[in-house]
Amino acid sequence: MSTRAPLVRRRVRSREDILGVEQQRYQHLLPGSTIHACLAESARRHPDKSAILHLDGPDFMAPSRDVTYRELLNGVEASASVFLERAAGAPSVVAVMVPMVPEGLFATWGAQRVGTAVPLNPFLELASLVNVLNLTSATVLVTTGEILRERGVDAAAVLARVATLRDVLLVDGDTSTFTAALTEHRGRSVEIEDDPHRDAIVMPTGEPRERRSWCACRSAANSSLRGTSER
Length: 231
Fold this sequence. Notes:
This protein is of the alpha/beta class. The protein has a domain at 70-207: 3-Layer(aba) Sandwich (Rossmann fold). The chain contains 10 helices and 6 strands; from the N terminus they run αααββαβαβαβααβαα. Strand 1 and strand 2 form a beta hairpin. Helix 4 packs across helix 5. The model is unreliable at 1-7 and 206-231 (pLDDT under 50).
């Protein structure tokens, strides 16, 4: 059972309220030091509360799926068990290339629980996908059959191009190999301690643009400081 204080909720109505919030250390407001720990505590406190409302057309005002915190935690922990088994002793690196569906969060947070997650843009071209999988030494790819078909390949073709890849799990409705794997691993525990200081995610998509923006901001800040000192 967690010994942390419950999450603090405050009304902000004045400058004094803002200053009061700023005095709080964010670490003291969280129920855990990792995503998994926070999810586990949320599932303990509010197991049947909605954690994810998945909206899908044509009626975007009515959720097509409602995932509770209990179901979310179960999905994350089952994913972690699957990925650890598939890695077979190698560092677990899981690339997640799916549209915005709950399984994408199961896979991403499950991957972080036991190794490294590599979230990928579903519109990434095949050559770039294969390049990222090789550069990160990915052990599992979670994607959809439609995404692969749009690139003219199947799971076997991707496996043949990436030496470290052990499995391609598909999120495909009733024929989902990802869901089948989660069902097989439901309830299995992963004996790995949560470590908030371990690298848990690699963000390859959009990285060059973000780096340029960061450098530009730093350059602007330096220029501003030089101008201030000169004045």
